Amino acid sequence: MGFEEATPIQMQAIPLGLNNKDIIGQAQTGTGKTAAFGIPLVEKINVHDSAVQAIVIAPTRELAIQVSEELYKIGYDKRTRVLPIYGGQDISRQIRALKKPPHIIVGTPGRLLDHIRRNTLRLDSVHTVVLDEADEMLNMGFIDDIEHILSNIPRERQTLLFSATMPGPIKSIAERFMKNPTHVRVKAKEVTVPNVQQYYLEVPEKQKFDVLTRLLDLQSPELAIVFGRTKRRVDELSEALNVRGYSAEGIHGDLSQAKRLSVLNKFKNGAIDVLVATDVAARGLDISGITHIYNFDVPQDPESYVHRIGRTGRAGKSGKAMTFITARERGILETIEHTTKRKMDRMRPPTLDEALVGKQKMTVEKICSVVETENLDQYKNFAAELLEKYDSVPLLAAAIKMLTKEPDTTPVKLTEEPPLPMKKEKSRNKRKLDLKNKRVGRKRSFHSARSTKGSASPK
Ligand SMILES: Nc1ncnc2c1ncn2[C@@H]1O[C@H](COP(=O)(O)OP(=O)(O)OP(=O)(O)O)[C@@H](O)[C@H]1O
Ligand SMILES: [Mg+2]
């Protein structure tokens, strides 16, 4: 796979994994947690036994697919059979595939349960269970499903939990399902990776979109993700970006699975530059070339922040994350900074002129690369003629002007999102939330209603 040395989490977790220890593995985003559980997992598979021996559970369909691809690569030489099983895919096809049991299944909770109930998935030979994005999997939305799945897996098993974040209350829930787990924690001062530069911009709700497009013009990301709070927000934002001439598409849980996958593939291939997403794309996705993350709406909780910005700055690369907050959301910024133990730098929203300069720089870069790399012989006669008539500076300025796509200010329509509830609103919601927390023992620093989260649910 081209890896030269193990990452710190791999160095610590692989030997424990091979020793059949239960592990809670916590390390920053993009530091190779998949192989940290994947390598010992594959090592323990007996390829001569045609039975499902390991289950990996992931919170979203796209992540299940990605993890299964990575495990397939790790187990390739050993001929390990790996099958992803997720909602939105034809179930009869999955049932047929399960007739010849794969060694490892990577699935989303709902669809796994579906197969368990239909008796199309036998788990009695399973010796290893992994919860990728474990804190998300043991959160309110998934806990019942996970408990149900685990109750169908032999008790004599190894349980591995991995995530970049592991809030204390969730860790306590996790320990209920494990035997003497070792908490492997890579010693990092900060929860987020140091190679992601983090900024916040204070922007009134009504100006957010203009600020976003100016930033896109100024920073000209290779690939960028814009995170919005709700599905409607994502739809409106991607439409508005297209109106202004950006190649953007949205991804969220209400789209068909075929559409979700095609949007993600277009983004990976660079056919679109901007992916607009709910938190469905916040966790685990490993796409190279993502240089910029824009939190158009401030994340609902600090964990979501950590994972969203972790889509850039992976495997040692660098990245930038910009988080928009309205004046009323300042408290949320502090909560995030408190959790990540890192201050974000304040960034002043760029002006229209600065956006124009950004666009001009892009043109200049293109001209330079053409001068350096292309054969211009057929163009030189005209160039010489023009230079007899005009000075070189106005001539080049005209060419730059014509090649520069000036910032577009076409008005767009976005439905306003109310600021995230804090303080007063919080106490109003508190009782409801407390009841939920009691059930799962989860304390949140501020309210997060799953229904508005854009839903990371695979269902
Ligand atoms: N030892 C290694 N050397 C170099 N690259 C590696 C190594 N291990 C993993 N990688 C690569 O690093 C990238 C990030 O890995 P991975 O997706 O497993 O991160 P992660 O820790 O699970 O992140 P997240 O918390 O976002 O899920 C992948 O492209 C992976 O192939
Ligand atoms: Mg991961």
UniProtKB/TrEMBL annotation:
Record-level GO cellular component terms: cytosol; ribosome
Polar residues bias spans: 448-459
Enzyme Commission no: 3.6.4.13
Coiled-coil regions listed: none
GO biological process: response to cold
Superkingdom: Bacteria
Keyword annotations of the record: ATP-binding, Cytoplasm, Helicase, Hydrolase, Nucleotide-binding, RNA-binding, Stress response
CDD domains in alphabetical order: DEADc, SF2_C_DEAD
Basic residues bias: start-end ranges: 438-447
Protein name: ATP-dependent RNA helicase CshA
Lineage, opening ranks: Bacteria, Bacillati, Bacillota, Bacilli, Bacillales
